[in-house]
Amino acid sequence: MNESELQDAVSRLPKRIEPPRDLWPGIEARLWRRRWYWVPLAAAAVLVFLLIARAERSAWDVTALAGRPLIGTTRLAASGRLRVGDWLQTDDSSRALIAVGRIGQVEVRPDTRVQLVVAKANEHRLALARGTIDAKVDAVPRLFFVETPAGTAIDLGCAYTLETDSVGNGLLHVTAGEVEFQTGSHSSRVPLGALAQIRPTTGPGIPYVEDAPAPFVRALIGFDIEQRGTRARAVRTVVALARPHDALSLWHVLQRVDPSQRGVVYDRLAALVPPPPGVTRRAALALESRALEGYWTKIQRIQFRIMVLQGVREIDPRTGLAKP
Amino acid sequence: MSDDLVARAQAGDQTAFRELYRQHAGRVYALCLRLTGDGRDAEERTQDVFVRLWDKLRSFRGDSAFSSWLHRLAVNVVLNERRTTGRRERRGMPAEDPDNVAGAQHAAPLHLNIDLERAIAELPDGAREVFVLYDIEGYGHADIAQLVGIAEGTSKAQLFRARRLLREKLER
Which chain A residue is nearest to residue B21, measuring alpha carbons? Predict the structure, then answer.
């Protein structure tokens, strides 16, 4: 066969050759499988994503600010993850910054020991065993909690410094917003520019403003720790020394004082900062929550204006209005 | 006719796609059979081509005839498969293949086609691919070089070799 004959034979080859069997069922089956193959894959991917997301959510980022803090038994070089149950510990030369989920941050000062207790979207909870933290949270109230040996600091949208020793003696200083410190059913509300001393036996003390006179603070401490007999004397001192700026302290004393002294405290509070409309003496002495909340709102607003406008405008501590 | 089928299949109409398969399966199978030299491989590759076609159909813009576009897709599927698996195993034409060929529409004497098909199938892979693409399917050496991944000179050498081997086989 020569080249020409080969080309001639090739040119006569059929362009079509039917497959020996129908291939369509196989094609159709593969297309059908492919149409649904993503379902288990997608389900698996979603599951993996959820597990990862859950694992990620249950851990917070930690950055070493100074020295080499410990997470568990591991020294933190630059950054790491604090997982639920982990303890973060700083020594006298180390500091760390914890990212509180996506809502804020906590700076852990030297000689501090904290544990991540809960890391959920609706609950962010640390335990401060000892030491000092500076917390800044930008979220709706009651998302961030710090447990101490003496009680729990509940964030109401704020920035604050909280220190405690291993027994529970400590101090809460609020620099923005408001914090509630709770020990059992006993609680104190500490607004911007105020402090509260914390004790393991009595929990949160009566809060007071930063510039409260020392004798007034001593009287409050006496009220916090004294027994029934001497406490009455402390109440009289508190009432006598209180200024309009100290209304937030009197508001707390009103709720803790012996019922027989409630009238004296209320009258002093009302004289320093008149109650808002709708708050009656009777309701306040009966500790009706609506009356107390109304009064607190006014006191808190005045305190807020005093602090925020400090150095800009002089605010009347009785009304919260700018002085002419 | 075909344009309408293609448009409907592009829109997801499975009935139209099945009809496209009916119309083009013989052409695709012939190409796969000659390129692979193996009936079973050819069936698998034909199925691969139509599964791939379903994925790629939306990218067909009508710049060329659908049959030409599909033909090119089929060549790529077969050659890619060979490159992927690196399979060089020769299995020879299955017994049913001559019957298939005999059943096809053709004008040449039956025995000659059967002998030629068998001889093509028995060519070495490289020579067979170039021969099928150049002499049967009408591709140029530049295209073949690109499709197969060889130099143009290699394509020409493989064609020369294939023709010589075929002539020798058919003269026996």
Answer: A24
